[in-house]
Every structure is written in C-alpha cells, then in structure tokens.
Amino acid sequence: MDTNPNSKKKSASSSNKYMKFSGIAMQLAVLLFFAIWAGGKVDAMMENKTAYMTALFVVLAFGGFMVNLYRNLENLK
Predict the structure, then answer these.
(1) Which run of H or E residues covers position 34?
(2) Could you report the per-residue pLDDT of 19-46, keeping only the tens digit for each?
C-alpha cells in the first residue's frame, strides 16, 4: 500500500503536462493542410506557374508551429 499520497499527485500532474501534446500531429497536419490550400488559392489568383506562395505559406506555418511548440515546452519546466 502506498503511504505517500503526494506520489500519485506528482505522477498525475506530470502526465497531465504532456497530455496537451497528445494531439500535436493532428494539429500540424491541419495547419499544413490549410497552408497548402491557402497558398494554392493565392498562387491561382496571382496566376503563378510555380507554387511560390504555397511554399512560403508552408514554411511560415511550420516555422510558427515550431516556435509555438518550443515556447510550450519551455513553459513546462
């Protein structure tokens, strides 16, 4: 029998911190989908032969996602 009630609180608190990152792959997939979709629309509107805006939107979305992830991970400490 566990006589230390703080050990359960500590393990639950630790797992709760990381649970908010459980859907991170889906967040990234949806973000990149919308970046590709919006970039494609802008490229079509500008009549670009090469998908410059699509590439720019994807790079910016991914970069912003990584910065946000880094900040969230730093706040866990």
Answers:
(1) helix 24-46
(2) 777 889 999 999 999 999 999 999 999 9
What CA–CA distance (Å, rounded) separates 33 from 36?
Answer: 5
Token output for 17: 């911190």
Whole-structure pTM value: 0.75
4 Rama sector, left if φ>0, alpha if ψ -120 to 50, beta otherwise: beta
With residue 67 as reference, give the H or E element that holds it.
Answer: helix 52-76
Tell whether the torsion through CA atoms of 42, 44, 49 and 50 is positive or negative: positive
Q: How confident is the model at residue 49 (pLDDT cuts 50, 70, 90)?
A: very high
